[in-house]
């Protein structure tokens, strides 16, 4: 994990002091609400429906156990004892007191954390593959690059007042687990035939009101130019992105308006001036950051232990289910990455209590070198577990209620906070998620359905990524009443696609029944072993429509 | 017709320098694009400035959507100062303009921020190449002076500090190594 040096620490400390001063001036009436707004949101502080909300950054999803413990203590001391992991791999506190936020930021700074640029019209937290550094299909560890991007974006003086928010995602694996095609900038690290590291740069993707899949701006950028090239893109956006209409202000609208060729031409013109400038990366610079992400000293796991693990998998059905769904292969034989499900009965998706944070931190220390990752599916990952300790970990997770063997299934749904918390929401989303989870609890049925992404957003801002759910649910407001629009056929990853709306929207109580009907069509029409998304792509939306609205 | 009083003086009595010094502001700011004001020295809209005889008592005002070019930059380099207007403080184009003028178009003279210029944007403005600030008149000057020292270092290579932090780190650790190496061993 990246560890701050005195410079990083100084900057974060100075940020706390800056915000403390701004808060004092705000409370003293020296800053208006409208002028305080960008200052507070650039520190992750929202004024929500019932209370303030503080969004804390988890840079590219990497979290140390010592940091999780601090988050737990903050949640207990300053909030109501729980937090919520988001699809941007951040964590939100839903009930902090406005005037205490500077103190919370100071606590965060003590464990090298912050809430810088977790909101606002600036460059947000970069997200990446939750299996970065341990994935079997990885070509290049994206974490050092994400850290370089983090530093470059942090307090970038030119880009704090962009037309709209700006999100970057990066993958270094052959399979995209970071949804790079639906980000303002998507980055894919790859090696060319000569074995040289290249970056494929996409721009103009995004969800929200107008979902768009990103276009390739540069297929094979040499890595040295990563920062100057991104700077050129963001500069073109800052100058030419629309500022007259909030709903047309994202970079995707600019890319569409100019066309990708003209957009690329402007970026390349801009880049010609920045290329080979001081922000150009050298191997010394990258290696210095890479040293923060060296592999932990993993003791070797014996072949006997690996065989025992496989044998248990064959003999214990419950363990086998957990392994199939929540355990991911690791680049080192004998090790696995474990996904802890935060999709649990009686909890909102992504929610975790302070007590559980402490317990998970202990497990991370005991089983995974004290390191965790937050996933954009709102789960947690222990990235380095030796298989000879997996059974024990599984049992302990089970006691904690975090061993739900349902990762990647319908029960692992993504959900924004919705109308229960969020001031922007048109409708509640958490009760819909809970109703669906309650209806489809049977594990055999969930496994029979196979991989299925169900994503729920409480408004068209699409924090719940409903456009890229195989089944997407969007809360809409019609004359003050909450309705839900269902879409089918969305997908993230290498074959990203945007869902199509099924038809007229539904009352909340009808949603689980509608999902049931959608699933009936799938079960009836699927070929053997055919996942939902493939069946949908083969038969189209019509049979679903006919059955649901029959 | 001057319904919106566009040629009214919008400039403050004082100007804040990047150094933290506060000076009297002799410059009159006019947004009227049609006619020069009577006052001098005066900052006037770019097109009007371009159409007027050169004078060290007349300076151009750039709107945030102006497109820079080498030709325009050549003209601007001859101006006594260049003002960039923030129509609202959330319009971030002025930051890019200032950086481009400094880094690409080699403008050495004063770049002044005018319009909706608030305390909490000063630090970033200064980093991007602004060196004079005509603050909105409700801004407390003592807080503005303090805001110029918000951060003691920065990650990026931008106008004020061309060396990115990653380069500085390498340079300093190399220097430290040399220091260690030069200690005689016994």
UniProtKB/TrEMBL annotation, chain A:
The keyword Transport does not apply. The keyword tRNA processing does not apply. Pfam families: NIR_SIR, NIR_SIR_ferr. GO terms for molecular function: 4 iron, 4 sulfur cluster binding; heme binding; metal ion binding; sulfite reductase (ferredoxin) activity; sulfite reductase activity. This is Sulfite reductase (NADPH) hemoprotein beta-component. It comes from Modicisalibacter muralis. Residues 119-273, 413-548 form the Nitrite/sulphite reductase 4Fe-4S domain. GO terms for cellular component: sulfite reductase complex (NADPH). Its cofactor is [4Fe-4S] cluster; siroheme. Residues 53-110, 350-399 form the Nitrite/Sulfite reductase ferredoxin-like domain. InterPro entries: NiRdtase/SiRdtase_haem-b_fer, Nit/Sulf_reduc_fer-like_dom_sf, NO2/SO3_Rdtase_4Fe4S_dom, NO2/SO3_Rdtase_4Fe4S_prot, NO2/SO3_Rdtase_4Fe4S_sf. It comes from the Bacteria. Keywords: 4Fe-4S, Iron, Iron-sulfur, Metal-binding, Oxidoreductase. GO terms for biological process: sulfate assimilation.
From TrEMBL, chain B:
Pfam families: DUF934. InterPro entries: UCP030820. It comes from the Bacteria. This is Uncharacterized conserved protein, DUF934 family. It comes from Modicisalibacter muralis. The lineage of its organism: Bacteria, Pseudomonadati, Pseudomonadota, Gammaproteobacteria, Oceanospirillales.
């Amino acid at each position: 994990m990246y560890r701050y040096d005195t410079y990083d620490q100084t900057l974060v400390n100075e940020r706390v002091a800056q915000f403390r001063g701004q808060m004092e001036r705000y409370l003293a009436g020296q800053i208006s609400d409208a002028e305080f707004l960008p200052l507070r949101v650039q520190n992750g502080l929202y004024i929500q429906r019932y209370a303030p909300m503080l969004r804390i950054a988890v840079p590219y999803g990497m979290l140390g156990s010592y940091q999780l413990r601090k988050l737990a203590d903050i949640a207990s001391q300053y909030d109501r004892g729980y937090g919520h992991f988001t699809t941007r791999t951040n964590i939100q506190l839903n009930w902090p007191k406005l005037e205490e936020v500077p103190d919370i930021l100071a606590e965060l700074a003590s464990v090298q954390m912050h809430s810088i640029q977790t909101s606002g019209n600036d460059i947000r937290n970069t997200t990446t593959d939750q299996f970065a550094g341990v994935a079997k299909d990885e070509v290049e560890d994206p974490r050092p690059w994400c850290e370089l991007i983090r530093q470059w974006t942090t307090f970038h003086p030119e880009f704090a007042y962009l037309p709209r928010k700006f999100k970057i995602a990066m993958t270094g694996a052959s399979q995209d687990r970071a949804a790079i095609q639906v980000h303002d900038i998507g980055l894919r690290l790859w090696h060319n035939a000569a074995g040289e590291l290249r970056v494929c740069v996409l721009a103009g993707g995004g969800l929200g009101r107008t979902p768009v899949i990103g276009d390739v701006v540069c297929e094979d950028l040499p890595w040295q130019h990563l920062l100057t090239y991104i700077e050129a893109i963001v500069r073109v956006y800052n100058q030419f992105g629309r500022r007259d209409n909030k709903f047309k202000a994202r970079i995707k609208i600019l890319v569409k308006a100019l066309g990708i060729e003209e957009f690329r031409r402007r970026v390349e013109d801009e880049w010609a001036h920045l290329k080979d400038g001081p922000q150009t990366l050298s191997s010394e610079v990258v290696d210095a950051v890479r040293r923060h992400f060296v592999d932990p000293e993993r003791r070797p796991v014996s072949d006997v232990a690996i065989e025992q693990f496989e044998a248990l998998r064959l003999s214990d059905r419950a363990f086998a289910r957990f392994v199939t769904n929540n355990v991911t292969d690791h680049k080192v034989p004998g090790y696995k990455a474990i996904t802890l499900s935060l999709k649990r009965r009686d909890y909102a998706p992504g929610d975790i209590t302070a007590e559980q944070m402490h317990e998970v931190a202990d497990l991370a220390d005991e089983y995974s070198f004290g390191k965790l990752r937050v996933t954009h599916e709102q789960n947690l990952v222990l990235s380095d577990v030796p298989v000879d300790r997996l059974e024990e970990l599984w049992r302990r997770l089970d006691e904690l209620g975090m061993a739900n063997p349902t990762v990647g299934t319908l029960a692992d749904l993504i959900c924004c906070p919705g109308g229960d918390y969020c001031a922007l929401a048109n409708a509640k989303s958490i009760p819909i998620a809970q109703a669906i989870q309650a209806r489809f609890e049977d594990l055999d049925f969930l496994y029979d359905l196979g991989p299925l992404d169900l994503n729920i957003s409480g408004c068209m801002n699409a924090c719940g990524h409903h456009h890229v759910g195989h089944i997407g649910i969007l809360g809409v407001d019609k004359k003050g009443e909450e309705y839900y629009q269902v879409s089918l056929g969305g997908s993230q990853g290498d074959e990203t696609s945007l869902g199509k709306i099924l038809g007229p929207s539904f009352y909340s109580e009808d949603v689980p029944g509608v999902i049931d009907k959608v699933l009936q069509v799938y079960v009836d029409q699927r070929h053997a072993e055919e996942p939902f998304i493939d069946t949908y792509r083969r038969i189209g939306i019509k049979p679903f429509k006919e059955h649901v609205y029959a | 017709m001057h319904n919106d009083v566009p040629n009214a003086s919008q400039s403050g009595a004082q100007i804040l320098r990047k150094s933290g010094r506060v000076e009297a502001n002799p410059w009159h700011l006019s947004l009227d694009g049609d006619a020069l004001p009577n006052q001098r020295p005066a900052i006037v809209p770019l097109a009007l400035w371009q159409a007027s005889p050169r004078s060290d008592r007349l300076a151009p005002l750039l709107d945030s959507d102006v497109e820079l070019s080498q030709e325009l930059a050549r003209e601007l380099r001859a101006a006594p100062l260049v003002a960039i207007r923030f129509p609202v403080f959330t319009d971030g184009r002025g930051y890019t303009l200032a950086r481009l003028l400094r880094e690409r178009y080699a403008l050495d003279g004063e770049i002044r921020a005018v319009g909706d210029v608030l305390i909490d944007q000063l630090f970033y403005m200064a980093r991007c190449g602004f060196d004079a600030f005509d603050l909105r008149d409700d801004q407390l000057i003592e807080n503005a002076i303090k805001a110029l020292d918000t951060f003691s270092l920065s990650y990026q290579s931008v106008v004020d500090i061309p060396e990115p932090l990653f380069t500085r780190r390498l340079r300093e650790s190399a220097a430290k190594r040399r220091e260690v190496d030069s200690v005689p061993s016994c």
